[in-house]
Design brief:
It is globular and about 40 Å long. Helices cover 31% and strands 23% of the residues. It starts with a strand and ends with a strand. Strand 5, helix 7 and strand 6 form a beta-alpha-beta unit. The chain is an alpha/beta fold and 190 residues long.
């Protein structure tokens, strides 16, 4: 059983991350409410010696938060590394992050089996997310699925509403809507 504790998330100390990101991201990462970075860091410590998947690297802030617990390995996937290079974060203290340039579209369902947590923060058009969610559903994935921006983007809200597993929107995470879903496992939010 995974316990997601709101106060535990809000109390996360983000100092050990702030020195590795650009000024623009420091403010976002340090927010108590309205961003999902504290939630991701908190969740990284709910797993040990696990693989965590970050679909949608962008600058790499989510990957750094997920890699906070150095016992875990984080695979961060994006179709380009342009934004990651633009922001020039310092990833040297996070050798447990593996960056992959790929659309994650052609992978078989079994690809998702090894992960304990999957963050989907991609195109926001609903189509890519639907294809990935369909593959996850037919995989043997057991763990936590996080879908970001489900309030802001109508297409994502539709995909979120189609998920039949136990789920909850975390009102203290990203202001655009961070949903957490328990797939073949038990998650308790308090």
């Amino acid at each position: 059983m995974l316990l997601i504790n709101k106060q535990g998330i809000l109390d996360q100390n983000m100092d050990n991350i702030l020195s590795f990101v650009s000024l623009r991201y420091k403010t976002r990462i340090n927010k108590k409410i309205g961003e999902h970075y504290r939630t991701l860091k908190y969740l990284s410590y709910q797993f040990d010696n696990s693989w965590l998947l970050d679909l949608g690297t962008r600058a790499g802030a989510s990957a750094i938060c997920l890699a906070s617990n150095q016992s875990n390995k984080v695979m961060s996937v994006d179709i380009t590394d342009k934004e990651r290079k633009e922001h020039n974060f310092d990833f040297s203290n996070f050798p447990n992050i593996e960056f992959v340039l790929d659309g994650a579209q052609g992978v078989p369902s079994s690809f998702y089996d090894r992960f304990s947590l999957i963050l989907i923060d991609l195109d926001h058009n609903g189509k890519t997310e639907e294809r990935i969610l369909r593959k996850i559903k037919t995989s043997s994935f057991t763990g936590v699925l996080i879908l970001d921006d489900i309030i802001k983007f109508r297409a994502l809200k539709v995909e979120w509403n189609n998920i039949t597993y136990p789920k909850q929107i975390l009102d203290y995470a990203h202001h655009t809507g961070t949903g957490i879903c328990a797939i073949n496992c038990e998650v308790v939010c308090s």
